[in-house]
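Anyone else keep sequences and structure tokens together like this?

Example one:
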Amino acid sequence: MEVPVPRASSSLATTILLATALFLVTTTILRRRGHRHRQARKHNVPPGPRPWSVIGNLNLLGALPHRTIHELSARYGPLMSLRFGAFPAVVSSSVEVAEVLLRTQDLAYLDRPRMACGKYTVYNYSGMLWSHYGPYWRQLRKLWITELLSARQIRLTERVRAEEVRAMLRDLHPTTMATAASTSSSSSTGRAPVVLKEHLLMVTLNVISRMVLGKKYVGEQGPGGSAAAAAPEEFRWMIEEIFFHNGALHVGDMVPWLSWLDPHGYVGRMKPLAKMFDRFIEHVLREHGDRRRLEGDAFVPRDIVGTQDHNHSAKIKSGYPNRKKNERTVMNAIQQLSEDSAIFHRCIMTAHTVYN
């Protein structure tokens, strides 16, 4: 007599089998990861605090990370190792060690991390600050050193810095006089402190604006005036937001598999900031392009954007005949190769030799 097996027992056996298989797979993965971590610990890494499994040493960073790192360096020495999420880091706290890292072993530390700020505000890591070391980065660095921030360009913009410093001093004089007058009744000396942070910030923004863009987009007074591309408050907000996000700690930057998580809303702030900055830059480029077309051959660049635009146009004009010449040379070479099979075979063998 046959006894039927209940379906519940069959499903229970299947569940137990799947749970056992999942347990074995998870155990195997964890053991392999532990083996890799043990192998990584065999490397002669500098001393440092013991990292946690997921966040690393992020729990040690407080509101002022530079002070926390200074305190850790006093405990672990001038060269210590930290782990920020999934990424290891080496921290140098002495001149001698910094010279070794930045001069002797500079090629090993030239790559930039892929962070959210470089992706959303610098056109997908295309700026010199965020791009990886390679031909593109070397070309950008050469462009900045030889053309945009050359000694000649710095001398030409010296007047801008002097004018902005004088403007700050003119603004400070009535401010200090008014503050001293208001406090003279309560103080025998008639002196009062002045907060320089706001004035120094305005000087910095105005100098950057005039050197790079050719106009002063922050203040209404002074050379250059305000522009319709953005209100002074909007321009200042954009610059301050870019500075802030360059130093902000985004969760996805340290733990890539949590990049979808944005607890502080940084990515949500960077996306509209990038669109707003795009519109502003497009307006500035149109202004420079209109001025260059209006002045023609008499055009003289006055700022970094004008210099770059002028150099780019000159390279395009000078490179157009060369490109045509190169195209004709390539077409002639293709024609010769198609007519002479011996030369074609020799070129193929040479290409194979060079490639191998």
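And example two:
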Amino acid sequence: MNALPPPSRRVLADLGGTYPALRPTTGIAASSVQRALAELSSLLNAQATTFMVRDKVEAAFLRHRRFVRSDRLAAVKARDDALAARIDDTAVRLLLAPATDLIDLAIKVGVLIALSEAGPSDSTAFPGAHLRALFADLHQLKDLER
């Protein structure tokens, strides 16, 4: 594992709402960066689901310790850890893949934004604000609409 900060699913979704280039796509014409973005988005969605399951299992465990098997909690935690490792590996692969066009470059900057902004207030601090300015510049250089 490369130990990147976890990317923010919310930030990626917000950026994808504003900039269609950051919406996940797959298919024959998709670049390796675009396919990695689709995989990263899928993994982040799976992780969100796993977090909800983990919260429920932990709450049940705290309420009824003797009725909830601790191995179920351990299994959920193991799945969380495995997903986190896959997310990290996918983000690294995406960032290190060669960009074939401005869309790929914009995707990479968008993922860097999602990695740098752990919370909403981070978008105005370094490096979030500066990466967002770079992202907007990239968007204006070429029509990144699909």
